[in-house]
Design a protein that fits this description.
Blueprint: H1 4-22, E1 25-27, E2 29-37, E3 54-59, E4 76-80, H2 85-96, E5 108-116, E6 119-122, E7 133-138, E8 141-146, E9 148-150, E10 153-158, E11 169-176, E12 179-186, H3 198-210
Parallel strand pairs: 3-4
Antiparallel strand pairs: 1-6, 2-3, 2-5, 5-11, 6-10, 7-8, 9-10, 11-12
Helix pairs in contact: 1-2, 1-3
């Protein structure tokens, strides 16, 4: 295993979990895309394709209505009691080790992307519920999502319906040519511009910048 890959993964995962914690979110899945990398130039190779290139780690305890859609075919899916920084770090380390299906040669296995698709979020105080359910607008319709109470706060997870394609707060991290890029996408209103939790999201991004990340753009 190339020594730079675990270091890059640690940087990415630390930023990811810091961000979710700051906005009251908990990742429920982590999808990982790996590839063979050129040992000389440190870039992912399109050819040959790694046989076990796509991996996923799921939390064992899912809300019953959660809909998890793999972003890649033939994912190797593992499960963990708690999806946290430690379990994700071990998961990535295992995925980066060459196995009996990998080719030999000078290339090494590296990661190209990490993605959180499904997550649970702490709802703002006073958010309107419908008979104990959270109404989430999806297109022109409404999806009623279950709310669980933990320590006095309401929590809801998504995507929670076949018509709901995105989770409440998604995160994509990519790595290429020595650079790591993190993209946060907010799909539920409280975390969008003008929402009550949007300032917390902006503060979380500002904290990443203070820790060495460079702000790209907002759109």
């Amino acid at each position: 295993m190339d020594a730079t890959q675990p270091v890059a993964a640690q940087i990415a995962l630390t930023a990811l979990f810091d961000l979710y914690a700051a906005v009251g979110g908990v990742p429920l899945t982590l999808e990982l895309a790996t590839a063979y990398w050129d040992a000389e130039f440190g870039i992912p190779l399109d050819d040959p394709v790694r046989p076990d290139g796509d991996w996923a780690l799921h939390a064992e305890r899912f809300p019953p209505e959660l809909r998890v859609r793999p972003r890649a075919k033939d994912q190797r899916v593992s499960r963990t009691a708690v999806l946290d920084l430690g379990s994700c770090r071990g998961f990535v380390s295992d995925a980066l080790r060459k196995n009996e299906r990998d080719i030999g040669g000078q290339s090494f296995v590296g990661w190209k992307s990490m993605e959180v698709h499904a997550s649970s979020v702490r709802l703002p105080a006073g958010v309107p519920l419908d008979d104990g359910m959270l109404p989430v607008q999806v297109g022109r319709g409404i999806v009623r999502t279950s709310v669980e109470i933990h320590e006095g706060a309401g929590w809801a997870a998504g995507p929670s319906s076949p018509s709901m394609m995105e989770g409440p707060l998604e995160c994509l991290i990519t790595q290429d040519s020595g650079e790591i890029e993190l993209t946060v996408s907010a799909y539920w209103t409280p975390w969008c511009p003008g929402g009550s939790e949007y300032p917390a999201l902006r503060r979380a991004v500002a904290a990443l910048v203070e820790n060495g990340w460079a702000f790209g753009f907002e759109g």
